[in-house]
Amino acid sequence: MNVQTHNRPEKILDVQNVTVSFDGFKALDGLDFSIQKGELRFVIGPNGAGKTTLLDVATGKTRPASGKVIFNGGVDVAHEMEHTLVRKGLSRKFQTPSVFGSLSVYENLEATVGFNDPTLSLLRGLTREEEALIHDTLALIGLMDRMQVKAGILAHGEKQWLEIGMLLVQKPSLLLLDEPVAGMTRQERNRTGELLQSIAHRCSVVVVEHDMEFVRNFAKTVTVLHLGQMLCEGAVEDVQRDERVVKVYLGRAHA
Amino acid sequence: MKAKEKLSFALLRHWGPVLLLAVIFLLAPQVLTEFRLSQLGKFLTFAIVAVGLDLIWGYGGMLSLGQGLFFGLGAYGFAMYLKLQASGDKIPDFMFWSGLKSLPWFWQPFQTPLFAIVAALIIPALLAGVLGYFLFRSRVQGVYFSIITQALTLLTSIWFIGQQAYTGGTNGITNLGSAKVFGYSLLSSQAQHGFYYLTAFCLLGVYILGRWLTSSRFGRLLVALRDDESRVRFLGYDPVVIKTLVFALSAMIAALAGMLFVPQVGIISPSSMGVVPSIEMVVWVALGGRSTLLGAILGALAVNYGKSFFSESYPDIWQTFLGLLFIGSVLFFPTGVLGALKSATARLRTLAAFWVVRPGLAESHKPRATHALPEVVLPTMSQRVEGGSS
Lengths: 255, 390
Ligand SMILES: Nc1ncnc2c1ncn2[C@@H]1O[C@H](COP(=O)(O)OP(=O)(O)OP(=O)(O)O)[C@@H](O)[C@H]1O
Ligand SMILES: [Mg+2]
Known about the structure:
The structure holds two protein chains of two kinds. Chain A is globular.
């Protein structure tokens, strides 16, 4: 394994020939997909293309019928539990924002920070480093002056940022984000895009997205899924011009 | 100055009611007759159970129907010690009647008070811990968890009835009167007062423990688990550990209550540890208000005082009344009486704020405004949030 890593750049996520079927319907169909360390990758595709399923498989939520998912060079996702995978550095944001509405913004971050400590240490207060980490994160996601507000009354966009912040305090090595800008205003989308780019300096990021304008503005490398298979992959300018992509998107543009 | 006032007001709101209760409990021995005091002492042990049940059910969302079992195990453990004490160098009377010649091996260590106390607390906690670990690991949730804990309670109480020679069977362990604690006879008013105060202090201690636990990050995760377990998993926490710990803790709290129950009531029998008592415990918490520890205490006291009032005056209708009370509270006060009170005060506060902010409106539109207000103005944002957090 070490020999390999000398020769080529390391893969943080390696999806190998994965098939997922729901009662015979193949949501993923022999998919090969990989991300290099430090990469910011966008995954696009029409409704039902299998994007969310791809994240489900990568985080162990759904078990593939065949194929394998390797995280960080040696971790076989099939052998992990949801929480052990997170502890090894794989964090994921779900499509619907799920923050704890009855807790304040600060408390939401506070509740996520101790995930790697022994359970009983959750009974003590935060250490100074943890507090600093939370404050840095609040600044990064732009919710510093909202930290006392209950998360339940945040605007939709703010909830999405908070959820991203909750993952960031866990210092993941790979962050999977499912439609982080869905339902956002253009202004919020631009802020999110900048946030994603600054996050990409710290860890590898996979962003699943629908919004083509957003992808054009912020993506470099894009993977297009369609019917559970990879349609094409490459620089965003090339992918946009790809005939198959145009067809898939135009064919269903306003479906 | 203002901030200080605000702080002391918050302190008063947080701890005031408990302080008041504590003062009442500590003054009670001066006022109550021996009979009423030992009755209150018994109810305080129930309140301890209720706090533990509120932790696991109210905060953790796991409806355990096994609290009566853990209560009973704790009670039996301490009763074994008292029974041996009371029997002197003979074997306990019920063993003799069942034809046993010598003390069974597992009774032997209960001659040591320290062993009896530790075992009475640890065995129920271990039982809950092991059971919980396997149930939670296989992701048994909701009503299945309730049914399994209930089945265990049923089996154990039936088994205790069957083991006449070792447990005293249906009668349980009784005739503890000649036992001595710290040189005093168990029935002396010194000993009884001592156990009463001990119970009151334990209740206070358990309550403070609960407050501390639920306001820590651990407590927040517990609530988060109740609301969305899968979310918590994907934040890197292992729900199995958190839930098992809380279940074991609630079992230990119930066992503590059982231990305090026995010396004050003088008997423990399978009828106090079975399915029905376990359900009654749920009623106390449901009625008082889930995830308001104080509500659990008040619920336990109110239901038991109601029970004794009705069963002294109208013994026949008590069960029916309790059933109706439970259904009524679930229908009309789904958050319990304390929960309902809380949202009512929140409502009042919003109302007050409204009049303070817009006094002019209050003057000019008084008749119509008072009429329309409760419907239209009340569900403000801030209020909805407060409701959500309780
Ligand atoms: N649990 C499930 N049971 C049955 N079918 C499922 C399940 N989950 C997903 N599918 C199906 O698999 C296909 C892929 O779904 P997936 O959620 O991965 O799509 P997606 O690319 O994320 O779409 P969207 O853009 O709408 O979020 C869809 O046709 C969906 O109906
Ligand atoms: Mg999706």
